[in-house]
C-alpha cells in the first residue's frame, strides 16, 4: 500500500498541535483534532522564504518540499508566502526575487486563534473569504464537514489548485472564484464568516447582508498605521457589535485583480524644511507595542508608518501624512525626532502615549468595533467610551 499524505505528516502533526496548545492558540479539543487531522504540506508544496540581502532589501527565495526530511519546515508555526505580485517581481539571482506577496499559507497559530474566536458550532454554515492554499478550508471541513464550508478567492487559479489539494484528502467544499468583499456569488446566508485578507476600515456590507441573525464575523481591519482582527456579532437588523480580539495578526489586503494590487495613489511631495527636537517617546516605544500602534491609527487615520534609510545607512521610523508632513524617530533611540510640514505629527504620538499610559496601557481587546445598518462604523475604548468614527 502506498503511503498517504497523513503518513508523511504523522511525525510532525503532534508537535505542531502541542505547540499551538501551549501558546493558547488552540483552546478546545475539537480544533486540536482538526489540526491533527489535516496535513499542511499537501497545501504548501512550494513557497518563498524571506531573506534580506546585503543592501537591506527583502528577497524571496523559492523553497520546495521534495524530500520527507524537509517536511519539518512546513510544520513550523510560521507564515509561508506562496505567490508574488507579478507587477513587482524582479529576479535577483537563481531562485530568488524581490516583490510584493499576494498569497500565503497563514501562520497556523494565527489561523487557530481566529478559528477559536469564530466560536463555530456543529451544523453552522461558514463563509471563508480568501481560499488561498486551501489549508484553512480543510481545517473547517475537518471540524464541520465539507457540506457546510464555502470559500471565495479572487484568483481562479488558486481556487482550482486548492480544490485539487482538498480532494486528495477527501474534502469537497464549495469553492468559487470572485471578489470576496461582495460575499458569496450565490447570495447564500451564513452563520459564520472568516476573512483571511484585510479590508480597509469597514467590513463590507455584503457580509452583513449574507449573515443570519446572531452570525459572527472574524476579519482583519486595516486602519492605516496599524489594524487588527475584529470579532463582531450581527443582529437581525444588520447591526454588528464586538471588539478587537486577543488574537493579533495581519493579512494581505483584499484586491480586485487576481494576481496584482492596484498602483499606489500619488502622494504630495515631502515637506523639506525640517526641525529637530527632543522627545520622551522614541521609536522603540512605537515598534514594541502593537495596541499603541492601533491607537495611533485611530488618532492619525490618514498617516502611514514606514522606515527611512538615509545616505549614511541610518534607519528611522517614519510617519507621513497625505499633505507631505512627516516625522522621523531614529532607531538608535537617542531621544530626538525630526519633522517637516505644517504640523508636528509626533505631538500626536506623545499625547496618545500619555493617554495610553493613563488608561493602564490597554490591550487591543479593550477597544470595541461596531457597525450600524447604514454602514456607519466606530471604534471606542470600552472602559471610558472614548470614540473614534471611521
From TrEMBL:
It holds the Pfam family PCMT. Transmembrane segments: none annotated. Its main location: cytoplasm. GO terms for molecular function: protein-L-isoaspartate (D-aspartate) O-methyltransferase activity. It is an enzyme of class 2 (transferase). Keywords: Cytoplasm, Methyltransferase, S-adenosyl-L-methionine, Transferase. CDD domains: AdoMet_MTases (cd02440). It is found in: Cytoplasm. GO terms for biological process: methylation. One of its GO terms (cellular component) is cytoplasm. Its EC number is 2.1.1.77. Belongs to the methyltransferase superfamily. L-isoaspartyl/D-aspartyl protein methyltransferase family. This is Protein-L-isoaspartate O-methyltransferase. It comes from Streptomyces buecherae. The lineage of its organism: Bacteria, Bacillati, Actinomycetota, Actinomycetes, Kitasatosporales.
